[in-house]
Design goal:
This protein has about 350 residues and is an alpha+beta fold. Helix content is about 40%, strand content about 20%. It is built from eleven helices and nine strands. The strands form two sheets. The chain has a seven-stranded mixed sheet. The structure holds adenosine-5'-[phenylalaninyl-phosphate].
């Protein structure tokens, strides 16, 4: 009786498979005869209720038949694949445009930062780092700015709420804060750059944001002089912009350098002949620079006058603005994808 039933199922499969014309029909047939809820599979599940003698005999036949049905279905699959797609779903329209994957974009600040790091590491510089939340000591005291020093007002600092008995903390207002950190743990000679985020509580405009990047350079050794500062900067800018760049130092004041300079480069747009980008000045201001004040060396434990060194702090946004001819630095951190997608 059961034997006949099994043979009957196989016969039905053989009959129905002849009528199958496409993969959808084959799928339905497979479901009907071998699916979890099919008569055949239910039947296999109930084998356990048979007497041991019959269970073995019928079980063997059922399993053999199941494999045969599977082979019939697979054979049909192969036949159908040879005749090409039989349903709309299976057809591939090669003229439909592909779906573009969104892979994200580097912010131009990151691109510029990487370029700078590549150029300086190729010149033998180390890349140093420091925390964005900084102690008063590293951001000010060690940089020759005692507590009541008026130079602290040169930068509007975001101070954090002071915890009782703990040191006063602020959002780092300049990458110069890393100078003392690095020098405390290293002995000259060394040359480093420190690209990093800075924060200032100031009204924003096209060239000022509350969050911006600077890139500090610090070179310390014996007999380092202003000539080295000028030459290294000139080499760097020429590589960075891919054209010859002239640099100009103007006298200035920073408590942590003596002498101190404002640092200008020849306009990259007009090449130094005067244009709208440089407001017909021919020069563009990029940041501050100078020879490390001996008081800073003393604050980190070096012997006075044993070493000399130069340092600078340039705005990364200014460099990116010049490189990509962007007229508002606030765009960099605006999160506006229409802007970012252009890079
Ligand atoms: C300084 O921060 C000094 N630490 C630079 C320095 C380093 C001098 C080492 C001597 C030796 P200043 O505040 O001028 O200096 O800032 C330097 C540069 O950072 C500016 O010229 C500008 O390019 C950039 N910068 C400063 N404030 C902002 C701001 N709010 N938004 C965007 N860029 C800024």
């Amino acid at each position: 009786m059961l034997k006949t039933k099994i043979e009957e199922i196989k016969k039905q499969v053989l009959e129905e498979i002849e009528k199958v014309k496409n993969s959808d029909m084959l799928f339905d047939l497979e479901k009907k005869y071998l699916g979890r809820k099919s008569e055949f599979v239910g039947f296999l599940k109930n084998l356990k209720n048979l007497a041991p003698e019959e269970r073995k005999q019928i079980g063997d036949l059922a399993n053999k038949t199941k494999l045969e049905i599977l082979a019939i279905i697979n054979g049909k699959k192969v036949d159908l694949s040879k005749t090409g797609p039989s349903t709309e779903k299976e057809k591939i329209d090669v003229t439909i445009p592909g779906k573009k994957k969104d892979i994200g974009h580097l912010n131009p600040i990151s691109i510029v930062r990487r370029d700078i790091e590549d150029i300086f590491t190729s010149m033998g510089y180390e890349i140093a780092d420091g925390p964005e939340i900084e102690t008063e000591f590293y951001n000010f005291d060690a940089l020759n700015m005692p507590k009541d020093h008026s130079a602290r007002d040169m930068q509007d600092t975001f101070w954090l709420k002071q915890e009782a008995g703990k040191e006063k903390l602020s959002m780092r207002s300049q990458t110069s804060a890393v100078q003392a950190r690095y020098m405390q743990t290293h002995t000259p000679p060394f040359r480093i750059i420190v690209p990093g985020k800075c924060f200032r509580r100031e009204a924003t405009d096209t060239t000022h944001d509350h969050t911006f990047y600077q890139f500090e350079a610090l070179v310390v050794g014996k007999n380092i002089n202003v000539g080295h500062l000028k030459q290294v900067a000139q080499d760097f800018f020429s590589q960075f912009f891919g054209q010859e760049i002239k640099v100009r130092l103007r006298p200035s004041y920073f408590p942590f350098t003596e002498p101190s300079f404002e640092f200008d480069i020849s306009c990259t747009v007009c090449g130094g002949t005067g244009c709208r980008a440089c407001k017909y000045n021919k020069w563009l201001e990029l940041g501050g620079a100078g020879m490390v004040n001996q008081n800073v060396f003393e604050a980190v434990g070096y012997k006075r006058n044993e070493y000399t060194g130069f340092a600078w702090g340039f705005g990364l946004e200014r460099l990116a603005m010049m490189k990509y001819k962007i007229d508002d630095c606030r765009l960099f951190h605006s999160g506006d994808l229409r802007f970012i997608r252009q890079f």
